[in-house]
Amino acid sequence: MAKEKANLDEVLRTNQRLNEQIKALTSRNEELQGVIRELENDITELQKEAKGQITSVKKKGITVMYITFDGFKSIQEGDEADDLYDMLDVLHIKFDEIALKHKLERVKSIGDDYACAGGIVEKRSTNPLDICLAALEINDYVQRVKENQEKQGRGYWNIHVGIHSGNGIVESKSNKKKKTSYAITGEVINTVPRISAMSEPGEIYLSDYTYEIVKGYFRCEYSGELPVKYRGNLELYQLLRIKRIYAEDRKTGIVPNAEFILKYHLKEFNDLEEKVIDFLVKNLPEHLHYHDYTHTIDVVNQAELIGYGEGVSDEQILLLKTAALFHDTGHTIESKGHEEHSCTIARKWLKEYEYSQEQIDEICDVIMATQMPPKPKSLLQKIICDSDLDYLGRTDFIPTSNALYKELEASGVSFDINAWNKMQVQFLTGHQFFTATSRRLREVNKQSQIERIKKLIPEE
């Protein structure tokens, strides 16, 4: 028995020792698994950094500028040749600088060629204008450097520039350092190098697609046709300069004047409007049934209508519409004192859209004039106030006032329908339109609304 007990004790001790070993091995295995997971994560991150995060998006209405270089025969072998190839790198850096100035992005090209595009990061209806301005600036820079080189008896590069607007698939690739590179596939990038090849040294050729968009701003001449598969011949035009009436320097026609910039902003407004409306849709509180994005669209439209009725200038129309577009954006922060918040948002956004400081200040003055009760001073302030309350004299007064009633209820302000009708009569009776245009268009119907609502109020 003693022997059996000793054997049993030995077995128990062995079993305990094995269990302890198993626990130690299990713990070690868990540690190793953790190390493996960390290594796998590191490998994944390195792969992502090496390969980049790639996305492909179909884009409509993009414009591409493609630049090819020649002049190899004029380059002598030796140190001068090395210097000239270094200058090619300098040119690419300069082109990048000009592209960035005109809101363009560099895209993948072939060999030493250079390409950039507009409208590939966000929609910009002005991207054909941006491309043409950049092309003129690039060509002028290269010609000046070339002349200086030739005066010193040195060879230099020639550039051939092609521009085309169309559709394509934009592939963006970003890495861990948040740097993004772009490539384009499709018709637009397949065609534009051929347009570039058709041009003579120092010339800029546009496709007819681009020409139709920019011909009101730039002087161009018909240059010929390019056969294109599946569509026949593509008409080509040489871009010469900005039209004299829109050029700061009428001799060179490279720098746009104030009139050009105004027309540019008017064209660009549609992009800004789309962006602001999208911002309102995503950020306005749900209880704002009256001060929603449709109210902003309405005020923008009425500001333009009344503005033209009052005979204001095109620049004042731009300022009016921009003020109307931003006048309620402050509701995304706080409804109380939202006009001040609207000005803060407008100042930030409009600086990015290159409005002048003087224009931004006036836009904010117009926005502040919409505070209740309105006390406008300038004509533009009177127009925005009439635009903001234009519905008072329109046939859609009832559904619009119902939306305001619903908004007040959602905000915690409640009263019966009889009290609401009395309040409307009081407000309508005390209200006045400030512009002759609004009085002519809305006053009669406003008085009709007053009489209609009075009939709904029971006699006391």
Plain-language structure description:
The chain has 460 residues and is of the alpha+beta class. It has 2 domains: 53-256, Alpha-Beta Plaits (2-Layer Sandwich), CATH 3.30.70; 263-456, Hypothetical protein af1432 (Orthogonal Bundle), CATH 1.10.3210. It contains 14 helices and 8 strands. Strands 1, 2, 3, 4, 5, 6, 7 and 8 form an 8-stranded mixed β-sheet that branches.
* Structural Rg: 34 Å
Low confidence ranges = none
Q: Please state roughly what percent of the residues sit in beta strands, choosing from under 5%, 5-15%, 15-25%, 25-35%, 35-45% or over 45%.
A: 15-25%
Oligomer: single chain
Number of domains: 2
Query: The biggest beta sheet, please?
Result: 8 strands, mixed
Q: Mind telling me the CATH class of the largest domain?
A: Alpha Beta
Computed structural class: alpha+beta
Described by the principal axes of the CA atoms, the overall outline is globular
Q: Fraction of residues in helices?
A: 55-70%
Tally the beta strands. Answer: 8
Order of helices and strands: HEHEEHEEHEHEEHHHHHHHHH
Mean pLDDT: 87
Supply the CATH architecture of the largest domain: 2-Layer Sandwich
CATH homologous superfamily of the largest domain?
A: Nucleotide cyclase, GGDEF domain
Q: How many helical elements?
A: 14
